[in-house]
Design brief:
This protein has one domain: Arc Repressor Mutant, subunit A. 68% of the residues lie in helices and 6% in strands. The protein is built from 7 helices and 2 strands. It has helices spanning 9-19, 27-50, 54-65, 70-77, 81-93, 115-137, 141-159, and strands at 97-101, 109-113. The radius of gyration is 20 Å and the shape is elongated.
Length: 162
Amino acid sequence: MSDITDQHPDHASRVMADVVPQFQNSATLDALQELVDVAAQVPHEVARRAGLSTSELHSLRHLFEHPMGPVELARVLGVTSAASSGVVDRLAARGHVERRPHAEDRRRTEVVITESGRREVIGRLAPMFAGLAAVDARLSPEDRVVVETFLRGATDAMKALM
């Protein structure tokens, strides 16, 4: 079954205008849709280039922030504990993570990103973040307020579906 977003953009806009009368296609909405589409593709492409699964890439991204237990990692990935354990095994085999006893509860294990894992994340994502920083640097303070208001409103509209 085809989704309306798979069809020609003009057709999708006409369908949306029929369903949501106040919807009017605009360059802003087109740019937002393109951003959403590209953002959905980025993890798959970055993971493919790194020779990782998307779950492995997402795990490294989360572990970059702080160590997690395998169950907590499963929860943030939206997978079973068994699947999470497999992800951790594969990342550990590549030297990107280590399992260590939990600092406060030695009965528990936590997964910690290694320097190799940090280099993988930084090396793969730094060019994108540099580009985003350059775009942001070109905005005036007033522009930032407008862009932030639009993006937060768009985020809220999408979150309403969840």
